[in-house]
Amino acid sequence: MSRETFELIDKLRRAGRRSAMATLVRTIGTTPRKEGAKMFVGDDGGIFGSVTIGGCVDARVIEEAAEALGASAPRLLNMQLGDEEAWEIGLTCGGAVDVFVEPLSDDVAAMYETAQRELESGKSIGIATKLTGDDAGTRTLLTGDDVPRASRTEGDVYVEVFRPPVNLLIFGASAVAIPLVAYARELGFRTVIVDGRERFATRERFPEADEIRIGIASEIAGEMGLGPTTPVVLVAHDYKIDIPVLKKALAADVPYIGLLGSRRRGGTILQMLRDDGVSDADVERVRVPIGLDLGGDTAAEIALSIASEVVAVMHGRSGAALSKRA
User: Fold this and answer.
1) pLDDT tens across 270-294, in order?
2) Which listed residue, of 62, 97, 144, 316, carries a Cα 20 to 30 Å from 177's Cα?
3) Domains delineated in the chain
4) Neighbour-count burial for 218-235, b at 16+ CB within 10 Å, e otherwise
């Protein structure tokens, strides 16, 4: 679930309007939307989000949402799709989707508020929802070792898993960092700007950054708890920052390390790392030039290429065009 969904649940609750929440809990076939996708339908006709990508399924969900609100009771929709209907929502052939539709009650909203607090404290959490029977809609909070690795439906129970957001650490409050923060936030990353220059690392320049740290970059890097959920991007274009931060990042199990600069500049910095005793295997983890080859050269285009590469790496993908896949 995205940060925007938590915010929307809170907004709907505070507005005092009755709403239904629909959750995609099972798919048979390949669809662009994953289990956990949500749609909210208000009693005033307002619609937020989508459980598929529009079409027949969402239209049916909207109708059922009104029924669920009228009856003040949840319902599980099992929709078998013909080839034409499946194609409409992104399935390559006939399949099926299950959508759980329920009134967004105070109890439900409170459960998600609890999940949000746990996430903000750095913990993983799960919510197990009964999908059928007289107790359909009842929920159990899962913590610690009870939280499975991923969201899933088992029998008539859907377990929705929430994990703390990935912290994208951006070293250098440069022009490229400004749109990069904006893109990263939309993609669900928690963004941290690190720079030693107070006049650049400001809230005015980075209104959407989750955190701004001012100080010696390598010291801050050492304080950030680098690990599998902290991809590192260096856009300071200053070797006095790049080299010590790279050493910190390469000593940790970070999933992505990208360095802004030309191939020539990058080669010089990588050789300096080798000269300081960093192994070839670690040096090869540094991505320079940074980003995917999108062909742009503006700050926004460079930021987009960086964000795209980070997403691809975090998902274990190459970033190649889908049209070229076999």
Assistant:
1) 999 999 999 999 999 999 999 999 9
2) 316
3) 3-122 (no CATH), 167-314 (3.40.50.720)
4) bebbeebebeebbbbbbb
| Sign of the CA dihedral with 221 first, then 224, 227, and 228 last | negative
Rounded Cα distance between 139 and 151, Å, is 14
Q: Which residues lie below 8 Å from residue 298, measured CB to CB, with a gap of 6+?
A: none
Neighbours of 37 (CB within 10 A): 22
Closest residue by Cα to residue 31 from 115, 107, 126, 98: 98
Residue appearing with tokens 């007289």: 134
Question: Could you give the CA distance from residue 255 to residue 198 in angstroms, rounded to a whole number?
Answer: 29
Amino acid identity of residue 67, one-letter, is E
Helices (H), 206-298: 217-223, 239-250, 263-275, 280-283
DSSP summary character for residue 33: S
Residue 205 makes CB contacts below 8 A (sequence gap 6+) with 173, 178
* Confidence at 30, pLDDT banded by 50, 70, 90: low
d(CA 56, CA 231): 39
pLDDT tens figures, 252-265 = 989 999 999 999 99
CA dist 14 → 18, 49, 252, 256 (Å): 11, 18, 42, 39
DSSP 54: S
The CA angle 14-19-25, to the nearest 5 degrees, is: 115
Q: Is 44 exposed, middle or buried (0-12, 13-18, 19+ CB in 10 A)?
A: exposed
Residue 51's pLDDT is 81
